[in-house]
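Quick question about two entries, pasted in order.
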Amino acid sequence: MQWNQTEHKRHQSYQDFSNGELTMIPAVHDPLSAQTVEQKGFQMAVLPTEDVAKICGYATSYAVNATEMITAARAITQVTSLGLIVQLPMDVRSCQQIIRQVYELRQIGVQVIQFDDEKGFSAGELKQVITQLKHYFPDISIVMTIQADASITGIEEAIKKANESLRSGVDFIYFEGLTTEGEYLYVSQFTNGPLLADMNEKNKQWLSMNQLQEMGYHATIIHGGCIRLMKKMYEEAFEDS
């Protein structure tokens, strides 16, 4: 596939995602996993820091920096036409550095960036970052990851953060740490913007795509599948050696 055809296909995937036409988005971690996902008919994938950390041999996703995430994204965009949601560690506090990192991602065709709220930006700081990003890159969408614990107090605080982020210009909210169907429903009712759901090895036993669609989730991110199977394959390959 020629470069302009690849970019056209990637751009169309982002449009379909924005329009709510892509309801299931798997996680990838390298070019091979991305090619396999594309061959299965998916148009979009997410590149999480957690999976890239495992590929790099790190014990925690906190060890991954933005340069490593950009490098991983570049390798994937070179061999697929997938639209990527790239999780970008906010390991810097400078707005200009964040703009530079997003610029590098836009240069390789990435149009959806995922940030975490863990750095504790104030509402004013976050609004400044988002405003600058939207000024320089009007075609990007921003996903904000919000941590929610199992208590009602924690969920209420998470919803408050989510709505503050949406007022600052964030496009999508992605809650992590929800543990029951009721919590998924609760945040969907009180968050004033589109939500991405987290489906992983733990919650897929009691949570379905149909349930999430009925709750109004924009799309569901499927975590852990590729990287878990790859690890299992390595373990089995060296079992008898």
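Here is the second entry:
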Amino acid sequence: MSLNQELTQMKQAFEANSPLEAQTALYRHIREQQESADPFGLQVGQKARDFTLTDALGREINLYDELAHGPVVLTFYRGGWCPYCSRQLKAYQQVLPEIEALGAQLIAISPQSPDETLSHTEKDELRFKVLSDRHGLVAASYRILYDVPEYIQDVLQQGFGLDLAEYNATNRWILPVPSTFMIDESGIVRSAYVNPDFMQRFEPEEILNELRKL
């Protein structure tokens, strides 16, 4: 079963068990982002923005230092509280040996504070770098950051007990559009997947296909 087939099953379970009002609000927001006149994300051929961020263990990681060792698969996710994101990261972990065999590495970024980025279990299971973009500056530089509208804040707080300001240790409700960029050693974006529908993600097999083209 592919990653997105699994995510479709999760979506069906969400629709079967969540209030209709919450579903309507979330799907409305997805549609608004999809129809935005200002598209999200860096484009293929553009220069990747350099950054230095901290991982879950407190180490500073610089993108261009990592590119000196080979291509980088850079994926932005919403946070460990998002079940679709957790499933995505686990699926990417499963193909990590193949990513590394192709001379590349995987880096994942979320706006959560370093203490909230990974659970203890995930720290043990995930073998790639997971970084904290606490104020969303890196996501903004990749043109994927947005402020969560109040009606979605209400849904997340009242329907699911989520306070993103607390998770992200900031006073702003911000999220990245789920995105995956393939960046070559020269810092050029060679592939870009940016999808406002957070219930869909870039397939692991597509990551491998894109890396084989580099």
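Reply: The chain has a mean pLDDT of 93. The first strand starts at residue 52 and ends at 55. Hope that helps.
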